[in-house]
Design goal:
heterodimer, A: 231 residues, alpha/beta, Rossmann fold, 6-stranded mixed sheet, 4-stranded antiparallel sheet, globular, B: 369 residues, alpha+beta, 10-stranded mixed sheet, two-stranded antiparallel ribbon, 14 helices, 12 strands
Chain lengths: 231, 369
Amino acid sequence: MPGAQVIAEHLSRVYGQVAVLDDVSFVVEPGELVALTGPSGSGKTTLLQLIGSLDRPTSGRILVDDVSVGELSHPAEFRRATVGFVFQLHYLLPALSAQDNVELPLVAAHVPRRERIERASELLTRVGLGNRARARPAELSGGERQRVAIARALAGRPRLLLADEPTGSLDSAASHKIWELLANACGHDGTTVIVASHDLTLAEHTERSLRLLDGHLVPPTQEQLAPKGIT
Amino acid sequence: MITLGQTFANLRGRPGRTFLTALGTALGIATIVALLAVVGGVRQSAGSLVDLGPSEFGLFQSDAADPTTSILATNLIPQLDRTPGIAAATPLVLLVNDLPKAPGAIVFGANAHGFLTGGLVFNSGRSYRSGGEIVVGDTLAAQLRIALGQRLTIAHRRLLVVGIYHNGIAYQDSGAFVSLGTAQAISGRQGEATTIVVKLHPATKPSTAQRTIARRFPGVEVISDAQQATRAGVSGELISQFGLVIVVLALVIGGIGVANTMLMAVTERRSEFALLSAVGFSGPQIAGRVLIESILTTIIGAAIGLLIGVIGARLLIHALGAQTFVSPQVTAWDLGRGLLVGVLLGILGGLYPAWRAANVSPARVLAQH
């Protein structure tokens, strides 16, 4: 199944008197791997939450495959069918095994047990943790937990994968593995992937960058363009 | 959709909280079951006491705490004999706790030639003829391994066993009969009886006789069946009311306790519910998970509580020193009610936390972390 197209039109999000996002517009094409960069507090997380229907815009709209996600009456159904999330913190449920954690989106989608087990096993193998399926999060390293989180995000075969600082708390070796998995999700499955990070070198892993600064979309820096040979 | 395995895993993952919540529920349920069992035992006891064989009515003192504590003057008997519709009236004294070897046995003091003792069918021996003789029910005789010609001590009086009877009334078969005079002497109540048993003429309508007695003998309660006896017993009634109050209190306090614990759990697990929402769980699905956890916890508690309650009922009766009159009656319905209360506690205590969990804002919670 092809990835989703994401269109943001004059998107704003205001909390009290503070405009976290102000008139942001962009298009992400199906199957793209896009970096969303900017310093802390620039609005990256808010933008990902709006795209993923975890929050609603104050004005403007965001379309995911022509669905205006800010106006959904049952956003959980949309998330279940379309979106996979990876957060900086893995948010694995501590009482459940890696296998059970990966199955969660499938439980929400009422997928039969046998199919859930097969899918979760397949994904854990894909992220290199096939032999750690019964391990609890406390028994896994930081990098392994994040890989389980990626497997969970991919469990529902999402057309859009949103990753918020997925390597923020990992060392370089673990980060490299995570990037491989995200790139694989895009290249292998055709999933649209948007990755937010304050790390400007992120761009070297992605096809295109969107840069946020104080809630506004600004042109990419020279540093971001250089690895791709663009000046 | 909730997987039971994941719910159990969640409960196992927080053993301390699960145990304490279940324990709270268990104690509540145990209290309920124990009280129901004791109340059931009291009803049974009160009903049996007035199951007086061929008699039609038992007369008891109004407002007596329970039928065994009633006191009536025996000089009422001539007046009762003259009352239209009454064929015969005979006094009966109940001696409780006076048989050291069988504290649960009741010794009945009755006239040797009254219609009460006339209903005793003797397996061996005969009825008593003097104050120094006693006849023993076959159940009690077997329990004490006593035979004709042996002596039985009642309140320091050694009485000769002259007969062993069986009449099918459990209290009487596991008790004994002595002469009225002996019983009055033992109880120190000369000229008094616990109850007066009245036999009606065959043509007399019980309801008419009951009204007549009530009118002519104020202060006397007329009891014609076991249910009435239970109602007449003030202590039984008090225990019943107390039991009901405890059940309601257990539901309210237990419900608040479970709600509080579940609410704390929900507050601690906000990021978990935010995550569930992010991966596609709907509000009702999340609420269902919390509710199922709550119900499962209280069902575990209820199961433990049923066990403690059954044992606790016996301990309670012993602690109250009431084992002589009451043995706890635990019915399947009592156990069912205990379990039902457990489920209700889980639902009542889980509703608000479930609602809170379902309304956790994933954007706010996940951003905070």
